[in-house]
Amino acid sequence: MPHETPLIATIVAGLGLAFVFGTLAQRLKIPPLVGYLLAGVAVGPFTPGYVADQKLATELAELGIILLMFGVGLHFSLKDLLSVKAIAIPGAIVQIAVATLMGLGLALLMEWKISEGLVFGLALSVASTVVLLRALQERRLMETGRGRIAVGWLIVEDLAMVLALVLIPTFANLQAGGATTPASLLGTHFDLGIWGVLLLTAVKVTLFIALMLVVGRRLIPWILHYIAHTGSRELFRLAVLAIALGVAFGSTKLFDVSLALGAFFAGMMLRESPLSQRAAQESLPLRDAFAVLFFVSVGMLFDPFSVVRDPWPLIATLLVIIVGKSIAAFLIVIAFRHPVATALTISASLAQIGEFSFILAELGYASKLLSKQARDLILAGAILSIMLNPLVFAGVDWLIARLERRKAPSPSRVAPAKAIPVTQLKDHTILVGYGRVGNIIGNDLKQKELPFLVIEVSEGAVSKLKESGIEALAGNAAQPEILKAAGLPESRNVVVAIPEAFEAGQIVQQARAANADVRIIARAHSDAEVEHLKGLGADMVIMGEREIARGMIEELERSFPGASDEDSPRVAEARVL
Ligand code: AMP
User: How high is the mean pLDDT of the chain?
Assistant: First the structure.
C-alpha cells in the first residue's frame, strides 16, 4: 500500500526501476546513469502509472550527495586543495561569470527581466557534484592532476553557491521593495543590507572552516580511533555515518554552508588518519545506493513533453551549458598553461548542471525572481546535459586520442582503452594487480629476469612501475581490450593477484576464453572463492588465509622444536590443503 508507506515505496520503486533500466542501458552499451534518469522519468508525475513521492526522492538524493562528498573529502587533503587553488579559484569565478552572462543574454533575448536573467544564468553556471564525481571515478581520474583541479574547481563553485543561496532572498526583497517604495531611500538601506549579508556569510563560512580545521581535525579521528578500539564493526560503521551526516546537517543548520560542503570537510578531516581507508569502505555501499536515487529524483522532475512543446529556448539553454561553459573553461585552463588534455577533461566534467541548479531554480521560483518557464528550462537543461555528458566525454576522449597520436606515436596514458597497442612481449606472465601481493611477485619476476607485464587500475601505481622500467597497463583487467593489449594469446601465465573474487572471476573467465593453454593462478580468501575461480577456469587458486595459517604454524613449530608434522594434526591438515 504505497500511500501508507511512501518512504519505502519511493526507495523500492526508485532502486528497483533504476536497477532494471540501468541493466538495460548497460546491455545497450549506454551508461547506466541514463537508465537511472529514465527510471526517474517513469516514476515521475509526467508519465502515466505509479508516481513516487517527489519530495522524499529529493531528500533521499541529498543523502547521496552528502555521502559522495564525504568520500571525496576522504581522498582529498588540504594540501591537494591548496595545490590547485591557483587555477581553481580564478577558473571557477571566471566560468561562473561567463556562464551567468550567457544566461543573461539568452534571457534578454527572450525578453525576461534582468534580475530573472541573472538568477537563470547563475543556475546554468554550476556543475553537479554527483555527475562530475561519477564521471571522474568511472574514468579513474580522481587521483590525477586533472581530477584534482576539477574537484577543487567544484569546491570553489560550491562556495560561490553558498553565497548565492544566501543572497538571492535579499535580492528578491530588494526587487519587491524597489517596486513599491522610493528607491533612493531604500537603495542605501538595502545596499547596506547586501554588504551586511555578504559579510555575515563570509564570517560564517570562515568560522565553519576554522572550527573544522581546529576541532574537527582532532575530534573526528579521535572518535573513530576510539570506536575502532572497541572492535565493533557495527559501531564503526555507525560512527562513520553519524559523523558524515551529522557534520553535514549540523553545518548547514549552524553555518548555512551547503550539505555537500559540510560533508566534504568532515571527510577531509579524516584523511590524515590511518583509519580513513576503512571509513571510506564502510560508506561505499550506502553511497552508491543513494547516488542512484539522486539520478532517479532528477529524472522525476523532467517533463519529457516539454522538449517537443517548445524546443528552441531549451536548445539555446543546452548550448550555454554544454558548449558555452566548456569553451570558457577550456580557454581558462589553457590560459593557465595546462595541457590541452587537461583543459578538455575539465571542460567535459563541467559541461552539465545538476543539484545546485535545482536548488537555485526552486529558490528563485519561490522568491518570485524566476518564472515557471525559467525554472522548467533549468530542469530540462539539467536532465539533458546530464544525459549527454557521457557523450561529451566520449567526444573528448576521441579528441585527446587524436591529438596525442598526432603529437607522438607512443601509446598515451589518457587515450581510451581501445587505442592501447598490444604488447611486444611473448611467452610472458601477465600480473593483474600490483598491491601487497602483486608487488612481491613482480619483484621476484624482475629479479629472475623473466618477462612480465602488470595490469593495475591505480594510475599512480602504473606511472611508478613505468618509471622503474616495468611494462604496465592502466585499467581494469576485466575489460577485454586491456587483456588483449596485454598479449593474452601469446602469454604463458596469468596471475590474478587482486582481492575481489567476483572481479577476479571475470578476469579468469575472459583469460580462459581467449587462451585455452595459458596457466592461470588466482588469489582467494575463502573455500567458496577457490571453487568459484576454479570453476571459471583457474588452474591453481591460492587461498591467502591458508598461507597465513601455514606461516604461523611454521613459526609455532620453531617454538616447539620437538614436535613433528605427525604429532600435530593441524600442521598435517594445513599441508594437505
Ligand atoms: P592488494 O590487495 O594490496 O594486493 O592490492 C590489490 C591491487 O589490485 C590494488 O593495487 C588494486 O588497485 C589492484 N586491482 C584491483 N582490482 C583490479 C582490476 N580489476 N584490474 C587491475 N588491478 C586491480
Answer: 84
* CATH classification at residue 479: 3.40.50.720
* 89 and 182 belong to one structural domain: yes
Q: Are residues 434 and 370 in the same domain?
A: no
Ligand 1 pocket check for 236: Cβ under 6 Å: no
Structural domain for 515, as ranges: 429-538
Q: 501: Cβ below 6 Å to ligand 1? A: no
Distance 504 CA to ligand 1 centre (A): 10
What is the rounded CA–CA span in Å between residue 103 and residue 324?
Answer: 10
Number of domains in the chain: 2
- 434 Cβ inside 6 Å of ligand 1: yes
Ligand 1 within 6 A of 266 CB? no
Q: Does residue 380 share a domain with residue 433?
A: no
* Ligand 1 pocket, residue 435 CB under 6 Å: yes
User: Which CATH number do you get for residue 248?
Assistant: 1.20.1530.20
pLDDT tens, position by position, 306-351: 778 888 999 999 999 999 999 999 999 999 888 898 899 999 999 9
Which residue, 382, 400, 418, sits at the end of a domain?
400
521 in ligand 1 pocket by Cβ < 6 Å?
Answer: no
Distance from Cα 457 to the centre of ligand 1, integer Å: 6
Helix axes 85-109, 114-125, angle to 10 degrees: 140
- 498 CA distance to ligand 1 middle (Å): 5
Render the burial of 211-245: b for 16+ CB within 10 Å, e for the rest. Answer: bbeeebbeebbeebeebbeeeeeeebbebbbebbb
Atom number of ligand 1 nearest to Cα 506: 19
Question: pTM for the whole thing?
Answer: 0.64
